# Entry
Amino acid sequence: MKKAAAVQELRDCSFLEEKAGEITVLRDLFAMLPEAFLLKLGSEKEVENAKQPRVNRKRYATLERNLLSVVRAAFPTCTIKENTTGRHGFKGLYIDGLSSG
# Structure
């Protein structure tokens, strides 16, 4: 999939808009996005692994890298950080500022 097309498709997903003061956990983003979109960014096995709550991130590394690249291009003001402590009920990557505004 061409990156520009993926960026536009992600921008068109109005349900991705965050509310002020909230973040989007990457695992939740995998669940929100259509499987057809994710399959354009990674293999079927990676998409399946990404949707499992306890699978190591190494098992979907290419999908994660491609999705983050598209997110950064679609929402250039967002920040991507990692919660390593497990506080707030999750561990892993999260996105702050996921909006087109």
